[in-house]
Amino acid sequence: MDAFSPIPALIGGVLIGLASALLWLGNGRIAGISGIFGQLLPPARTVVWRLVFLAALVLGALAAAWLIPGLGVGGPGGASAQLASPPAGWNIPAPLWIAISGLLIGFGTKIGNGCTSGHGVAGIARLSKRSFVAVGVFFSVAILTVAVTGIV
Amino acid sequence: MAANLRLPYLATAAVSGLLFGAGLYISQMVDPLKVLRFLDFTAIPTGGWDPSLAFVIVAAIAVMFIAVRVGRIRQAPLFDAQFHEPEFHHIDGPLVGGAVLFGIGWGMSGICPGPAISLIAFWPDNLLTFLLALFAGSYAGALVIPSGRDERLALAR
């Protein structure tokens, strides 16, 4: 059940790439979710397209889950989505664990100017030196965090 | 009317968001446990590692790489006056420190911002807690780094 799924991964990756390509060539904007999300906060300047994009992001996942059910998590034929539980033996309530994770991700992507999409997809594709550093750091630290906590 | 309020601009944002969300579902990157199974390199020796995420990101980068080349030939995007290419170039403290903190948070939950938003479609327990924390963290980050564009540029140009 924990199977490696290369074909859906490649198809999904191409769709994410097309989404990024469209936003870039159409509107000259980088499809970086933390940036699109984070710049909704004051002093926000361009709010409307960001809200449109984020609403469509949710609808796109929902529509795909109904059109192509049963790929895994989500939709009528899928398992119900679950967030990770804290590591066994840590005695931390799940909501607190999740909240700390969310705070770190929000804060880190804000001061670091990007996440997996903005640095990871668009930044690498633009051959941005900053993005190569950011991606190398956050992947390494995330892998280390999983190894240290033993959460999986 | 501002360029970013015209219909073709907003329609582009909508179609891009739809494709992105569909891609996250089809690749199953909406499943935080699948993302964690990629990040769990300790499972490589035992054969339990799931390399799917690498296939997702490499495919996405390849498509975007072509689009960036096309964009460099053109003077401007279709529906705006210019490409909004980041103007920061230096590797600075906030970039590296931010990536470290993001990496810790990502390793704790397997959720990065794209899947976090698209998971609204499937609404797992504790998602609201996560999203409120994400929002609060982002807001706190905006208070800490220089808020003026010129100051941020001076730091990282």
Walk me through the structure.
The complex is a heterodimer of chains A (152) and B (157). Chain A is mainly alpha-helical and 152 residues long. Chain A has two domains: 1-80, no CATH class; 83-152, no CATH class. Helices cover 62% and strands 0% of the residues of chain A. Chain A is built from six helices and no strands. In chain A, helix 5 (118-125) runs antiparallel to helix 6 (129-149). Chain B is mainly α. Chain B folds into two domains: 1-85, no CATH class; 88-157, no CATH class. Helix content of chain B is 63%, strand content 0%. Chain B has seven helices and no strands. Chain B has helices at 7-26, 32-39, 52-73, 93-109, 113-118, 127-144, 149-156. In chain B, 52% of the residues are buried. The interface between A and B is large, with 116 and 122 residues. Chain A: It is found in: Cell inner membrane. Chain A: Its main location: membrane.
Distance between the termini of chain B: 32 Å
| Tally of helical segments of chain B | 7
For the secondary structure, the number of strands of chain A is 0
Sketch the topology of chain B as an H/E string, one letter per element.
Answer: HHHHHHH
Average per-residue pLDDT of chain B, rounded, comes to: 93
Based on DSSP secondary structure assignment, what is the total number of beta strands of chain B? 0
Task: Label the structural class of chain A.
Answer: mainly alpha
For the biggest sheet of chain A, the summary is: none
> What structural class should be given to the helix and strand makeup of chain B?
mainly alpha
**Low-confidence runs of chain B:** none
Distance between the termini of chain A: 15 Å
Pfam family, one (chain B): DUF6691
Protein name (chain B): YeeE/YedE family protein
InterPro entries (chain B): DUF6691
Keywords (chain B): Membrane, Transmembrane, Transmembrane helix
